[in-house]
Amino acid sequence: MPDSRSAILRQIRTALGRGPLSDSAAAALDARRPAHTRIAFDEDLVERFVARFESRSGTVARVSRLDAIPAAVDAYRQAHGLPPRAAVARPLAGLPWPAGFAHHPGPAGPDEQMSVTPCLAGIAEIGSLMLASGPDSPTTLNFVPDHHLIVLPAGHIVRHFEDAWTLLRALPGGLPRATNIISGPSRTGDVELTIQLGAHGPRSVHVLLVEDGPAAGG
Amino acid sequence: MDVSSPRFKQKAVIALANPTLRQALGQSRKGFVNKRAELVAALPEFEALRDQARDVKNHVLENLDHYLERFDSAVTAAGGHVHWARDAEEARNIILGICERVQARTITKGKSMVSEEVNLNAALEARGYTVVETDLGEYIIQLAKEPPSHIIAPAIHKTKEQVSDLFEAAHGGPRKTTVADLVTEARLVLRDKYFKADVGITGGNYLVAETGSSIIVTNEGNGDLTQTLAKVHIVTSGIERIVPTLEDVSLFLRILARSATGQETETYTTLSTGPRRPGDVDGPEEFHVVLVDNGRSKMLGGKFQDMLRCIRCGACMNHCPVYGAVGGHAYGWVYPGPMGSVLTPLFVGLDATYDLPNACTLNGRCQSVCPVRIPLPELLRELRHQQHQRGISPPVQRRALGVWRFVAERPGLYQFANRLAARALKSLGGRDGRLRHLPFAGGWTALRDLPAPEGKTFLELWHARKA
Amino acid sequence: MPRVGLFATCLMNLFRPTVGFAAARLLEDAGCTVEVPLAQSCCGQPGYNSGDFDAARALAKQLIAAFEGFDYVVGPSGSCMATLRHDYPKLFEDDPDWRPRAEALAARSHELLSFLTDVCGVTAVNAAYTGTVTYHDSCSSLRGLGVKAQPRLLLGSVDGLQLTEMQDAEVCCGFGGTFCVKYPEISGRMVDDKLANVAATGADTLLGGDLGCLMNMAGRLRRQGSTLKVFHTAEVLAGMATGGGIGDGEH
Q1: CB B188 within 8 A of CB B199
Q2: Is A1 exposed, middle or buried (0-12, 13-18, 19+ CB in 10 A)?
Q3: Best exposed site among A80, C60, C186, C234 by fewest CB in 10 Å?
């Protein structure tokens, strides 16, 4: 009695009218490096990123240096009437957080209202952020709280998806468990096709764009 | 899901008489169709992307065995498990087995059309599991105990008032009447379920052979919460969803949202690669992919192979005037509209699905918007051909075709019959020049007058002049 | 002078010969000689679309034989001519004898209005029509043959004619051959949606290039008591839209 995997593979090969591929044919497929059309644009990467991201109700605040991040976070939480606490991913814990601001590295539980995370890159093509999960970057920080703040150094904005894949593949350990490409706040159109923000993921995604930060991949 | 396609005509007539459905469909049409058109007009590369997407899918199908094997190895290398399901029953048993082994109680689900195809929810509920659909549209129809009526927006047929009714009955508490309040209520109710879930089941828009990743593309974030918070993540996906590399993924991401909902991108594109890693503080402990065949491999190498290119975007049904008139439920199964009219007969058999390939004018708008250039009208015509070969078409139609062929193969006889008909119908049409009733043409005259002919045929008039 | 074999089409031949005479006049004005083979009947599309490919092949062979001597085959119908151009080669894909003949015929087969502009180079006609016109793009012409700009170019040259585009001009009118009698309720909804768009233009005349669509729409208009005029585009272009339109009385 053949197992299902063998049965399905055999059925596929029978339907295609051939047996298994030869080693050289398989190797040729494995060596395939496609180069598909990319979307052309000549805007500055930062400007394009900001424009696309804001078009989907994302918000952006420009910050001059990394150590100005805590002040920007505090300004955001005051503007939204939030208490002074957040899940802050470990790489950002060492920044000068104000006294009285309670932060922990996650994971985010059901009562978490705000999180602050780094990201791997911004993708200018569509104005999205790529975040990689890891011990220092729990995925729940990206989805559970109502408010998600993301630290993005301007030099980490790449042009196309393909440039982001290069960064992903270069991570030690290869692809992380979860790679999230986030384009703005959660939304749904499932009730009368009326777009409503804050379906299940964050209601608000706020990018802290650091203008004098490290370059991508560095 | 049970098949009710044999009742297509009755359900279509009922749907046509439903004013809330008409309003809902009209609105959705305007949204999806107009927004897509705007985005396409603004993207000069769109046609090239469609060609490349078609070509990548064809390449994958020609090498499907290879890419499935590569995917299996890559998932395993990342610490996940791949299960192969020949049919619906096997898929259900695999998933039931996993749930039993981990002693699950609550199961959350992101939207997965394949899970509907294999009747998963009924099997899980029969075993006593609590199953919660978390995609808002799927949640709404789960409460309504209805099947989805669209593959992207399953509750597209529901008005806001109907959703208010459902939520009031299911959640208790004061009735919410605005979209914002309804969505907030759903968010609160479902948040609790995510944290309780033992198993999270999602679909897989794309499966990446290179990395062993499954990809979901969503707007709500429910799929992400489903897979991140549960102890076990199960992906259910058709075997044809494989793409070779991440570069191929970017190609499809450029055309999917534009074609489906008229957005440049959906909110969340998530690649899941195996279970949680050492040191991770969240994420599922187990990662399973159930590869479902269920009739797909049989479509390879045959006249319907092109249909396996489908990326489930919904553009075809958004642009189909028949779907736009009757909605999704009339089609009677999981997949409605043009793609459903091809897939349903192939998956559930020709006998139960006579109307699906026939309730179509072959107008071709579906093909003109399909991002992977599936020749849907040709495939529908091929299904009609198979119905004809198997004697499934109605006897009246076969007899009429037989008579038409006999006469048309004899041009002299054909022209004679036309000369008779021209005179007879002209006289029946009287001074008004139209007929209100005509035997054997009730389908026409029920709703339309038949314009009367001018009285003589073109051929006889032409040749009289030339003589 | 190119020799054109005029394909009569079932609906034009039986219901509206004026369209055929208009087509002939337009072709002759464009410098073609026009002949109408007597031994012609149907192109086979009803059989093809019903899945009876044998019947379609039988009729296709007949048509190919009747018309293959001409420089061009031209018909006042996107529906029939799309069948000749696209479906005939497919029907004979596996037939080494008929496939080249089908392909040769397909390459020389044209819908009337696009033939005038694209092959004969006609950019204007000598006709007048007083009225506001709206235009229905039949699906087979539009998507099957890419006919969209050509009728509009020619109509633009008609003296006194004003063209107003309707919303959703590219959406099917609900005719679809046997579809309209097999699924009359769905077809009825589609034609009503189409006619609502027509009415919204305020035009007094509806034109199109396919008699199936036009008879569907005119028949529904008359049943609803509308007196909106419906003509085949060729009739207006040839200056022959002077009598009753489709579904009107004394011609």
Answers
A1: no
A2: exposed
A3: A80
Pick the CATH number of A44-210 from 3.40.50.1240, 3.30.420.270, 3.40.50.10420, 3.10.100.10: 3.40.50.10420
Q: What is the dihedral of CA C221, C222, C226, C230, to 10 degrees?
A: 70
Domain final residue pick, C118, C146, C162: C118
If you count residue pairs, one on A and one on B, with CB atoms under 8 Å apart, how many are there?
259
Domain limits, CATH 3.40.50.10420, in chain B: 43-298
Burial class (CB in 10 A: 0-12, 13-18, 19+), B35: middle
Q: C244 exposed, middle or buried (CB, 10 Å; 0-12, 13-18, 19+)?
A: middle
Task: Please state the pTM of the whole predicted model.
Answer: 0.96
CATH superfamily of B43-298: NagB/RpiA/CoA transferase-like (3.40.50.10420)
CB atoms within 10 A of CB A92: 22
Chains that touch C (3 or more CB pairs under 8 A): B
Q: Identify the domain boundary among C95, C118, C141.
A: C118
- B322, burial (CB in 10 Å: exposed 0-12, middle 13-18, buried 19+): buried
* Residue C182 falls inside a structural domain: yes
Token look-up 């991770």 returns B280
Number of structural domains chain C divides into: 2
Residues 292 through 351 of chain B touching chain C, CB cutoff 8 Å: 321-322, 325-326
pLDDT at A199: 86
Residue B279 identity (one-letter amino acid):
G
Is residue C171 pLDDT above 90, yes or no?
yes
How many CB atoms lie under 10 A from the CB of residue A212? 12
Residue A214 pLDDT level (bands cut at 50, 70, 90): low
| C87 and C131 belong to one structural domain | no
- Residue B94's closest chain A neighbor by CA? A4
Structure tokens of B208? 């990446």
pLDDT in tens, A158-190: 999 999 999 999 999 889 999 999 999 999 988
Q: Is C236 on the interface with B (CB under 8 A)?
A: no
A155 vs B: CB within 8 A = no
Q: In this complex, is the C-beta atom of B178 within 8 Å of any C-beta atom belonging to chain C?
A: no
Q: Return the number of other C-beta atoms located less than 10 Å from residue A148's C-beta.
A: 29
Q: Please give the residue range of the domain that contains residue C179.
A: 124-237
The vertex-C219 CA angle with C213 and C222, nearest 5°, equals: 140
